[in-house]
Amino acid sequence: MQVLVTRARADAERTARRLAARGHVAVVAPVIAIEPTGAPAPQEPWDALVLTSAHAVPMLAGLSARDRPAFAVGARTAAAARAAGFEDVRQANADALGLSRLIAAAMPPPTTLLHATARERKTEPGASLAAAGFRVVAWECYAARPAPHLPAEIAAALRARHFDAVLHFSRRSAELLIGLAEREDLVPALRSVAHL
After folding, report:
1. Which spans in the chain are helix H?
2. Which of 42, 66, 53, 36 is nearest to 135 (CA)?
3. Alpha-carbon dihedral of residues 119, 124, 126, 131, nearest 10 degrees?
4. pTM value?
5. Which tens digit of pLDDT belongs to each residue from 154-186?
């Protein structure tokens, strides 16, 4: 099976290796690139760190409070935080509501939580935590920049119906791929492919 993987480059390459190990041909064509925003960490005091993506971890290099609890959304994010030197990393079961429950069970409100997050983010876990009485300070430390276009060889392969499947890992990346396909009149080709 020939599979198009449109995640950010490092994530897409990791997925491609896993697909190849299962006998598939993976073609990497990121529709987003992860970049630091350059926004400084908030100066106000905080008690615990919230991580909803491993993408935030490289942006924490200047953060000195490595002994405070760090709550991670899943195993990969938790492993990245540990590798970055955070001493007390607690892992949720890979979704934002589970992360909210983990934090609520471990910390009393009105604890101040620093959420190291993307500029483009969902309302959870911030909404649930705020409703439970926590103070959530969002630090938009990275952004997912959209690709300006699909590479010519990917567009040609789509037109020629070379792909059997496209993997989507977020609503935003799926929307970006569709937008790029619309600009290049590739939507009919995308309709002929399985979307997972």
Report:
1. 9-21, 75-83, 96-106, 126-131, 152-159, 171-183, 187-191
2. 42
3. 150
4. 0.86
5. 999 999 999 999 999 988 899 999 999 999 999
